[in-house]
């Protein structure tokens, strides 16, 4: 979460006010515990603790990644050895490239969809409408409807 300068300033003011009054800086309602800035209840769940944990986790992940690179094993699964020039194994690379391909396909599909709905010129749209009206008029003829479908198909596939 992003905090603004104003929020940070307010938080600091609140922090020092509560601290100087020996009130828990987290809940702001209970008396601070011993020499801590938190009450007994909040002490265990303090932001400082959370931040330390997060920092520790981050460092651990970084260390694990570096260790795996140094050992020449995949940074993702930590099991498979990697070929020179790579940081992940073949399976993990395939997995990520598959995910990328899926993202790419989804994007392409979206582009196609917008092309069909918005990418037509006025003339194409008019032709389409004319063909649709003609097909509606001659409902008796199934063949014509098939033709209309085919025409549409040609219009969309470029
Ligand atoms: Zn508290
Ligand atoms: Zn792997």
Task: Give the helices and strands, then pairings.
Blueprint: H1 5-20, H2 40-43, H3 47-71, H4 90-118, H5 122-137, H6 142-156
Helix pairs in contact: 5-6
Bound molecules: zinc ion (ZN) (2 copies).
Describe the structure.
There is one protein chain. By secondary structure, the protein is an all-alpha fold. It has a domain at 89-129. The protein has 6 helices and no strands. It has helices at 5-20, 40-43, 47-71, 90-118, 122-137, 142-156. The protein starts with a helix and ends with a helix. The model has no long low-confidence stretch (mean pLDDT 80). The chain binds zinc ion (2 copies). One zinc ion binds at residues 74, 76-77, 80, 88-89, 91-92.
Instruction: List the ligand species.
Output: zinc ion
- What's the total helix number? 6
Topology, number of strands: 0
- Helix-strand makeup class: mainly alpha
What portion of the residues fall into strands of 2 or more residues? under 5%
* Global shape: elongated
Instruction: Provide the gyration radius in Å.
Output: 32 Å
Give the N-to-C terminal Cα separation: 45 Å
Bin the helical content: 55-70%
Mean pLDDT: 80
Main β-sheet, in a few words?
none
Provide the succession of SSEs: HHHHHH
């Amino acid at each position: 979460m992003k905090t603004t300068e104003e929020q940070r300033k307010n938080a600091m003011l609140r922090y020092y006010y509560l601290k100087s009054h020996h009130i828990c800086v987290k809940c702001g309602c209970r008396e601070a515990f011993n020499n801590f800035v938190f009450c007994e209840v909040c002490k265990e769940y303090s932001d400082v603790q959370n931040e330390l944990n997060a920092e520790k986790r981050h460092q651990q992940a970084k260390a694990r990644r570096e260790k795996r690179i140094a050992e020449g094993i995949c940074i993702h699964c930590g099991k498979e050895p990697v070929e020179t020039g790579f940081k992940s194994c073949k399976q993990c690379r395939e997995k990520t490239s598959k995910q990328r391909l899926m993202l790419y396909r989804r994007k392409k599909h979206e582009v196609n969809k917008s092309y069909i709905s918005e990418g037509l010129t006025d003339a194409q749209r008019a032709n389409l409408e004319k063909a649709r009206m003609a097909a509606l008029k001659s409902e008796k003829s199934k063949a014509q409807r098939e033709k209309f479908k085919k025409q549409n198909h040609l219009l969309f596939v470029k």
